[in-house]
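hey so i finally got around to running the thing on that chain from the lab meeting. sorry it took forever, my laptop kept dying and i had to restart like 3 times. anyway pasting the input first so we r on the same page abt which one it is
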Amino acid sequence: MSPAEALDTADRRPRVVVVGGGFAGLAAIKALRKAPVRILLIDRRNYHLFQPLLYQVATAMLPPSDIAVPIRGALRKQRNATVVMAEVTGVDPERRRVLAAVPDRDEAALPYDYLILATGVDQSYFGHDEFAPFAPGLKSIEDAQSIRSKLLRAYETAETEEDPTKHRDLLTMVLVGAGPTGVELAGAIAQMGRAMLSSDFRRLDPRQSRVILLDNGPRILATFNEELSRKAHDRLASMGVEIRTGAHVDKVDDKGVVVGGQLIESRTVLWTAGVKPSPAGHWLATETDRAGRVLVQPDLSVKGRPEVFVVGDTASLLHNGRPLPGVAQVALQQGRYVGELIRERVAGRPPRPPFSYFDKGNLAVIGRNFAILESGKLKLAGFPAWLAWATIHLAYLPQGENRGEVMLRWAWNYVTGEQGSRLILRPHSPSPAAKPAS
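ok and heres what got predicted. didnt touch it at all, straight out
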């Protein structure tokens, strides 16, 4: 049965099409589990990714299977939901259809009565896409596996390098962007390097390993309280991470990173600096903010389109005078709200109040047994915050068996300091800038 046939049957229940199987999309679908509707979820991948732990896959602490779950498995018991693996290419809001490229078929036009766009974000290089081949971002399982291989290969290459003066460049890891992803990744890389260099390799001097964290702003973790930001800074520094703020990146290539006209030689550059929303605003021909996120109404619908909703990272909605951040808790709350709104609208109940965001706080972890937590007036740093971080992340993992496996791997890493998934899966390929030998 084609995706169109899955919806165009004699069943006259309202058709809800959800684009994106991330936090927001799944939350919306689960909120509709008892509603008299037909749901079609479209995603270009067949799995839901627990993105907050993606950096642990990149640093060999967890295998991909621990933070990803098949979407069909997650919705197995929800009989009113159908899943289609396809690439959405556009939306025809006038005719209420979603356009999707389905494998081995022509483009399909999928009708809807309600549309929920939960399409997330992609990596942004702020107009310098030429940096991308040399500085991969971290937005997908493929990215994480590529970064893991890149990091591990750096140590393998240094181990076989006869000239010890070259070890420093080979073992210099540069991260561009000191938000939560950059800080957590920098701490994990520093921790990984310490463990491996001290026990796994024979010809490497741990003092030659460098992790450099760059940010254009005046301090790291700019969305956190300044005191917590300073404590995170001190923690990274104690782990050997070099932090450079006010650092504008001019160029990234196969030699390294140019900052303020000065070259930092590095074979391993990672981009953790920014994101850009999906083209949902373009599809809908509606108003967007400067970043390209859709300016939604208080009920998360699109202006002039009460049947179309945009949620999660692609939506722009003010909270206390500032746009809501692109974090998992925002996506979860917005997805749940829209699902409940549609359920009540179908039942003919009065309109719901506007969406109201409940801020449960911000968390960032820096290496083993240290994190920072900010929730209202509560500000924690150190081991208690780390326990809170671990508990919250385990609770939100998509499947019970994932929680048990992750907890055991964390316990093993905590006791031994060892990473358990140090496999280089991708074959070595030359740098994109390398020229073939003549």
